[in-house]
Amino acid sequence: MTRKDRIAEPWGTRTPYGPGEEWPVRVDTHLDEGLAPEGVDRWVQTASILHSNGDALDIAVKDGRIAGVRGRAGDRVNHGRLGPKDLYGWQANNSADRLTKPLVREGGKLVETDWDTAMSRIVKRTNELLAEQGSSAIGFYTTGQLFAEEYYTLGVVAHGGLGTNHVDGNTRLCTATAAAALKESFGCDGQPGSYTDVDHADVIALYGHNMAETQTVLWARVLDRLAGANPPKIVCVDPRSTPVARAATVHLAPRPGTNVALMNGLLHEIIANGWVDSDYIEAHTVGYDELTMRVQEYPPDVVARICDVPEEKIRDAARIIGQAERLLSTVLQGFYQSNQATAASVQVNNINIIRGMLGKPGCGILQMNGQPTAQNTRECGGDGDLPGFRNWSNDEHVKDLARVWNVDPMEIPHYSPPTHVMQMMRYVEDGSIRMLWVSGTNPAVSLPELARVRSILEQDRLFLVVQDIFLSETAQLADVVLPAATWGEKTGTFTNVDRTVHLSEKAVDPPGEAKPDLDIFIDYARRLDLKDKDGGPLVKWHDPESAFEAWKECTRGRPCDYTGLSYGKLRGGSGIQWPCNEENPEGTERIYVDGKFWSRPEYCESYGRDLVTGAPLEPAEYKALNPEGKAVIKAAGYLPPHEVPSRDYPLQLTTGRTLYHFHTRTKTARAPELQAAAPEVWVEMSAADAEAYGIAEGDLAEITTPRGSVRAQVRISGIRDGVLFLPFHYGYWDNDGGHAPDGAGRAANELTITDWDAASKQPIFKTAAARLKKIASGDRPSSAPTTTGSAPVAPIGYETAGSHNAGVDEDVRTTSGGGTR
Amino acid sequence: MKIDLALEELHRSENDLAHELLQVSERHKVDHEIYHLGRDLARWSQRHVREIADVGKNYGLDLDPEPEDEAGLAERLREKGAELIGRRGNPALLLLRDLREIYMKASGVSVDWELLAQAAQGIKHTDLLDVTKRCHPDTLRQMRWANAKLKESATQILVT
Questions:
Q1: A466 pLDDT tier (thresholds 50, 70, 90)
Q2: Where do you find CATH 3.40.228.10 in chain A?
Q3: Any CB–CB contact under 8 A between B130 and chain A?
């Protein structure tokens, strides 16, 4: 047993292992100061809710309160490890400023009330709007942090009950492109990879994916491979010098917005050198010829100029990827939130496809998720898609869903794609959406161009419902605020990026009158008296387990088949990967084995879209393109971003995360160790740019785009020249208690552009033109973390470290707890 | 042979389509996808104009390779106007009308490319045929875009 400060050492103790070996178990435990494991009253099973990795853990309960966490040794995902946000973040549950009573707006102010009053107002407004305008007046915007049962219920209520097409989740901001890229290449969402691919891969290529900060435990797995025998080579594409870049064999730092050009350059080299699996391409794919033609326009010298990356590095990276025997590719926000998001991510799929590197150990793709339950938002209908990966433009799928819900198919809107959140905001702006119900997310800080977003949400004519655990910036604008229970206070299931389903059990009661989101949605359905076509209640379940059973039925025969799972089966052991059904009772580690895909026209989730215009393909077009259900190779040319640097705005701005915070910090800022590790917004610039601007570490600078400005202390980091980085976590709730800046802004989204990828509808946060000016000299260095992508290029006199009670017990075990793979 | 007439007509109709896309883009600046895509797709037609002018030389034509441009000032004024009227109901109906117009104009251009491709095959002019093969698919995508945006927007606009 060792004790580690996991603020200073986020990835903990190394447990090296070699290719094909089992990743050793290391159980991480962190408890309230003074509490020992033997003093814990109960341990309650759950998984991480503050990032997307899906690490299994047990909550320690002491005297009816959450008092710590311990990783689950026997779980396939984390083998006992936890990340800093899990180890310290649970303290937020116990915050004194949790919402404990419903609030309603009276005379312009939010005042406490009872549930009946709050829900009656919502139901009254719903019925008024249905009578006046119909369901087109009502929109729902949910999250990537509720449970599967809750999204499914919300989807049934919105799609099957009210019949509105306006349903989306904040997964639109983080993983919409993951889903879109998978739909384009494989006709269906669902990861063609498994975390165990890390155990086997000889090359791991990370595209715009700072895994070290976004999925710390998965990165620990990679670090353990790197520390073991025959380590994999790492290829990193990122404009910043992240921990991944520092560990990489080759690091490519392209100019923001040029990912498609870079990918085409890599594909050009792979194809030109014959590093392709021709038999696989012939047997299992369509579209290869177009790709070969397209990438001819992108030889390394051309790409080097577009991306401002040395030609030799492009060739090196292509050689490593092209000669890999077991290639794992992962993708995240550097691609998803950038110019040509879907087109670029699809090119990553194309590399694995043309190399025949799918469905075998070490050969996979992880189009990563950004949030813990994002996969469920997508599966269950929380992002507006039909549940169970049903295809809204396939009438048979709609009919089948109508059968499951026992409603008429006409009740389910399927005349066009679901309305994505940016379009919903436009409909709120033009007054055609008049009620918006936001659950578990904070658009007043997380959407682009905040001045616009605030002006939309502040409108008197909008009836805004916010369901949350704290009075967020968005909640401050609401007409009704519903206090929700969160992780540890309610039961449900959720699924991570590698399809592992975990049960998360209730450990303690929610504070005050706060209620599980599931109960709130069911209450809404009951009060609206939503019926199926035989007059029975539309929502036929009453608690998490009955909701899960209903959801299972909805997935029967679909790719994300849950029918082999149950709460009982998920209790006690490891999480289990879907599809889990009669044929695969223990789940499925790898999909797309032997080139078998879910892309047949009658089965697939999506017919795809034009990668440039976003126009959905018609059913007949898709049938002609891919009659036999193969993988679809889609080519794309490079197009410059809509906003490029100019004389007035000579720099490029990119936004992103830090390891120590999650989203708008509603939870992580309330965990003292995490807040102290990254207490205040900062802006990163390169040493060369800092010199050109006459700026030193810690100086106060103002960053301006055509949308607004933000002030932040400068961190001189290893970011590429010409690029600024701002973390997006910092809003206003803990500044002056308001929802908007009082003077200088500090939310990165004051600056971002209202523009999105036409195919995935994901907003573009990573290519805006900006200018910077020095406001004042600093008297101390920036407080940005020194352990992460924001590490300073030169010593600044301190290192990020935790306080005396940040110690975490790490128990490295030589034999596994069983049940692991 | 009337290929010169067909090329002249296409030169005119592509210029017209580019102009329409730009105008619609500017009118609906508050609908950000229309704004951005309208400009992106106008560029395709502008590229076609250059290709047509280039290949037109083989047929004794002197077509302007430069696409007709918008007056910068008028453009800014319309954008400002779009921001101001973006919160009333009627621009929505205008959007449907505008998308319909794009769809119709792109359909016309598409037919023009088909006619030209037929002629090029008849006289075995591969240069001309190659131009049609490069450009016509773009036109079809412009049509599908307008059609998809119409479908996507119609319900909300017409039932509200």
A1: very high
A2: 178-368+598-632
A3: no
